[in-house]
Write a structure and sequence with these properties.
By secondary structure, the protein is α/β, with parallel strands linked by helices. It folds into two domains: about 220 residues, Rossmann fold (3-Layer(aba) Sandwich); about 60 residues, ACT domain (Alpha-Beta Plaits). It has eleven helices and 15 strands. Strands 7-8-9-4-10-11 form a six-stranded mixed beta sheet, sandwiched between helices. Strands 1, 2, 3, 5 and 6 form a five-stranded antiparallel beta sheet that branches. Strand 5 and strand 6 form a beta hairpin. The chain is elongated. The protein starts with a strand and ends in a 7-residue tail after the last helix. The model has no long low-confidence stretch (mean pLDDT about 90). The chain binds adenosine-5'-triphosphate (ATP). The site of adenosine-5'-triphosphate (ATP) has 11 residues, from helix 1. Adenosine-5'-triphosphate binds next to helix 1. Keywords: ATP-binding, Nucleotide-binding, Transport. GO terms for molecular function: ATP binding; ATP hydrolysis activity.
Length: about 300
């Protein structure tokens, strides 16, 4: 797999506090990578290091296969970002703002109409930014980030503070970019539901550590059904099953089965009954992605 971003043991300390701890991010080409974690988990700090805005305490960053420390300027020329509130002149129109930025970047003039169209602001091209909704301002920020045709777009909590229609508009835009513009998108959020709706890959960060990284499909798989067994003398029953080589989990007097076919469940019940345990309940338990995320990040930020 080709990775657009790869970090190796990326670490940031502030005094004694470790904000980001030995992170090994792998962001595959052409995906929308959702960087998910509770507030204070270290997302912004990580993104700032990826953009060369903050120097890592240790570890390294590779973007487009090149070392950020060595090739900073040429790498960042191909990266677009929206990590803080976008900066613009509110007394100018969106077109004029983009024109000012375009001149700095040296992009061709046609780019302006193209990015306005892409973020659905063509109709507001000649309107002053001071009358814009927050969602429109955010989209103008993204339009600015797209002026130099980036191969990687980094967005820090882009839907924060937007109203429902602004959120939907932003999500659709993020989903379109990889397909229409051959772009890889890295988006951070503290809301699983946000990431779930746009991302194809997920990295979960908690207290500075990456605790999960895989496709959203793999994350969903983790959320699949579990079979719960409530039996008499559960701890001993669990040991009996283990001794017979049956894979289970045991927690709070409940046995959880891995094998979920009808036959496997029937076989387990038969063993338990044979061995003299009473089987009180055999139930399916459905874990939502939210449950999994909350379990992964349980404990809050108590570094
Ligand atoms: N400049 C700084 N100086 C000292 N500590 C900092 C600095 N920036 C961030 N931190 C600390 O590093 C930790 C991670 O912060 P960071 O902003 O990266 O988290 P986050 O996941 O982006 O959360 P949020 O969504 O709330 O911004 C926090 O404990 C924060 O207090």
């Amino acid at each position: 797999m080709e990775y657009i971003v790869e970090t190796h043991n990326l670490t940031k300390r502030f005094g004694k506090e470790i904000a980001v701890s030995a992170l090994n991010l792998k962001i595959p080409k052409g995906e929308v990578y959702g960087f998910l974690g509770p507030n204070g988990a270290g997302k912004s700090t990580t993104l700032r290091m990826l953009l060369g805005l903050m120097r890592p305490t240790a570890g390294s960053v590779r973007i487009f296969g090149r070392d950020l420390k060595k090739d900073r300027i040429s790498i960042l020329r191909n990266v677009g970002s929206l990590v803080e509130s976008p900066s613009y002149y509110s007394h100018l129109t969106s077109y004029e703002n983009l024109e000012a930025m375009r001149k700095i970047l040296g992009s061709p003039k046609e780019k302006i109409d193209e990015v306005l169209e892409l973020v659905h602001l063509s109709k507001a091209a000649d309107k002053k930014v001071k009358g814009f909704s927050l969602g429109m301002k955010q989209r103008l920020g993204i339009a600015m980030a797209l002026l130099n045709d980036p191969k990687l777009l980094i967005l820090d909590e882009p839907t924060n503070g937007l109203d429902p229609s602004g959120i939907i508009e932003m999500r659709n835009l993020i989903k379109r970019l990889p397909k229409e513009k051959d772009m890889t998108v890295l988006i951070s959020s503290h809301l699983l539901s946000e990431i779930d709706q746009v991302a194809t890959y997920v990295g979960v960060i908690s207290k500075g550590k990456l605790i999960f990284q895989d496709s959203i499909k793999a994350m969903r798989k983790k959320a699949q059904l579990k079979i719960r067994l409530k039996v008499s003398d559960a701890n001993n029953a669990y040991r009996s099953l283990l001794a017979k080589g049956i894979k289970t989990d045991y927690q709070d007097n409940i046995i959880y089965l891995y094998e979920q076919s009808d036959e496997a469940v029937a076989a387990v019940v038969e063993i338990l009954v044979d061995e003299g345990y009473s089987v009180y309940r055999v139930e399916e338990e459905h874990q939502s992605l939210e449950d999994i995320f909350l379990k992964m990040t349980a404990g809050g930020d108590d570094r």
